[in-house]
Design brief:
globular, alpha/beta, 5-stranded mixed barrel, 6-stranded mixed sheet, 3 domains, Rossmann fold, Ribonucleotide Reductase Protein R1, domain 1, OB fold (Dihydrolipoamide Acetyltransferase, E2P), 298 residues
């Protein structure tokens, strides 16, 4: 029997089937039972091997090593997050922004911030929001407040086969942005080669869309983030400007609370570090200590 093995990326899960993007096409396949025996489950974004027999039937037979697996529902091998934060409806929140940034720093995933619905807020309020976002740009987070500029630059930012995923609170405008960036997102992204003779399932939970040389993931995940598993002593490591300042703290492993000669506290007093960032750091410390998720996220 002639058997062909091919590698690809899982781009969607549909009613027990896996759509795998190879170099040439999208192939619909099922996973072998060995995954259940090993208590494994392929996720969107996984690099996998699929096997074709001479009858043209395909099976997913191997999950290649993962870089990461984040969110519920999960996306694997995420290189970058495009974080959508709305100016209004729901209102802009630095607290929520810091929460997302802390989570993705913990997951070791880079973040680019996009402000949605900027055209729906009055000029004075928009100026205040942009002033806040200027701080995040200064500490190293790319920030976009213009959708057209994002559309122009995003394709060149996504590397070969990199997976970017949208994230943000419900109602922030992730789907609207996706449809703007990828106008065929609500259509089939490629012809599906399959010997299973089944139609495409209409319910989509997570899906990857080709965007130039990489992928952009549409996912409902990341709306309610649990940070309580973070170790309290590690939390400061996920605030990028704290990490930069801590080399000048008197004590190694400084938690930036009441320690003498703390560089973070000095920069806070000089208003180099944003007061709301430090307040959110303290709030997250309390949340982790008590092992509870805030009521507004439940």
């Amino acid at each position: 029997m002639t058997v062909k093995i091919e590698q690809g990326t899982v781009i969607s899960l549909n009613a027990g089937f896996y759509d795998v993007q190879t170099d040439k096409e999208v192939i619909r396949t099922r996973a072998r039972g060995v995954f259940r025996q090993k208590n494994q489950k392929p996720a969107v974004g996984d690099k996998v091997e699929i096997k074709h027999d001479e009858q043209g039937t395909s099976y997913l037979v191997k999950i290649l090593p993962r870089k990461n697996r984040i969110g519920r529902p999960a996306v694997a091998n995420v290189s970058h997050v495009l974080l959508v934060i709305s100016a209004v409806e729901p209102d802009f929140s630095v607290q929520l922004l810091d929460r997302f940034l802390t989570f993705f720093a913990w997951q070791n995933v880079k973040v680019t911030i996009y402000l949605s619905k900027a055209d729906l807020v009055d000029p004075q309020k928009l100026a205040e929001i942009k002033e806040n976002l200027n701080y995040y740009a200064k500490i190293g987070y790319p920030v976009f407040t213009d959708k057209k500029l994002l559309e122009q630059e995003l394709p060149s930012l996504i590397g070969v086969d990199e997976i970017w995923t949208l994230a943000g609170q419900s109602g922030a405008g992730k789907s609207t942005l996706l449809n703007y960036l990828k106008q065929d997102a609500n259509q089939s992204t490629a012809a599906i080669s399959t010997a299973l003779n089944r139609g495409k399932h209409t319910t989509r939970v997570v899906q990857l869309f080709r965007l130039e040389q990489g992928f952009l993931a549409d996912t409902p995940g990341f709306s309610a983030i649990d940070l309580t598993p973070i170790k309290l002593v590690d939390l400061a490591n996920y605030f990028v400007e704290f990490v930069q300042a801590s080399s000048n703290c008197k004590f190694r492993g400084c938690q930036h609370l009441k320690e003498p000669k703390c560089e973070v506290k000095r920069l806070l007093e000089e208003e180099v570090i944003l007061a709301s960032r430090y307040e959110d750091y303290l709030a997250l410390r309390e949340e982790i200590s008590e092992g509870r998720i805030p009521e507004y996220l439940k």
